[in-house]
């Protein structure tokens, strides 16, 4: 089924009727508040007609509910994105390896984010964040230890530590331990794999 067909089939009439009945309101009372006919409210509740947005807003106001409440199931029906292990994109930055965990294109652009693993050999460091960029980052060290160089600060991180920061300041992650440093990283808006 196509996304357009899903949109056309989404129905919320039963939800409107359930709220109206739970609040002990009659069709007549809702119609009077929304300044529409009783018949129209009945048809909307039975999914016989699709109301204009201003009519829907008036009915929602009469029932004291939000449009988010009416359309929350629609939001949940949006597609999910799966990246199988063998299909993950990788980026090598000298000897540092980034492996994609989420698809930055699955969002709506405005709220795009990406997540990936970072594998840093002993004595090495990341390079790309050394000038800073727009957005925020969050990281979790899952193996090893290192230092996040953030502006003029040095922040020690060990296995199990997490960190969140504004990405506008220059930042790099250095492996200062005796084993490969492995971390899971999230960035918003998407940067590295958004190409």
UniProtKB/TrEMBL annotation:
What are the protein's UniProt keywords? DNA-binding
User: What Pfam families does the record point to?
Assistant: Cupin_2, HTH_3
Tell me which residues make up the HTH cro/C1-type domain.
Answer: 16-70
Q: Which Gene3D superfamilies match?
A: Jelly Rolls (2.60.120.10), lambda repressor-like DNA-binding domains (1.10.260.40)
Q: Which GO terms describe its cellular component?
A: cytosol
Q: Which domain of life is it from?
A: Bacteria
The Gene Ontology terms for molecular function here are: DNA binding; DNA-binding transcription factor activity
SMART domains this protein is in?
HTH_XRE
What is the protein's name according to its record? Answer: Helix-turn-helix domain protein
Q: What is the lineage of its organism?
A: Bacteria, Pseudomonadati, Spirochaetota, Spirochaetia, Spirochaetales
């Amino acid at each position: 089924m196509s996304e357009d067909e899903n949109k056309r089939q989404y129905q919320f009439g039963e939800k409107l009727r359930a709220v109206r009945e739970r609040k002990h309101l009659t069709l007549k009372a809702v119609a009077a508040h929304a300044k529409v006919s009783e018949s129209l409210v009945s048809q909307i509740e039975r999914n016989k007609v699709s109301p204009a947005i201003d009519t829907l807003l008036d009915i929602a106001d009469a029932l004291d509910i939000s449009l988010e409440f009416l359309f929350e199931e629609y939001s949940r029906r949006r597609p999910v994105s799966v990246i199988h292990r063998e299909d993950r994109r990788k980026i090598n930055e000298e000897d540092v390896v980034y492996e994609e965990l989420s698809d930055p294109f699955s969002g709506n652009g405005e709220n795009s984010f990406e997540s990936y693993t970072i594998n840093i050999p002993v004595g090495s460091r990341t390079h790309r964040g050394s000038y800073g960029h727009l957005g925020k980052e969050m990281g979790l060290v899952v193996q090893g230890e290192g230092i996040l160089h953030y502006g003029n600060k040095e922040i020690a991180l060990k296995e199990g530590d997490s960190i969140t920061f504004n990405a506008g300041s220059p930042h790099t992650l250095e492996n200062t331990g005796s084993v490969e440093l492995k971390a899971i990283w999230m960035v918003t808006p998407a940067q590295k794999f958004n190409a």
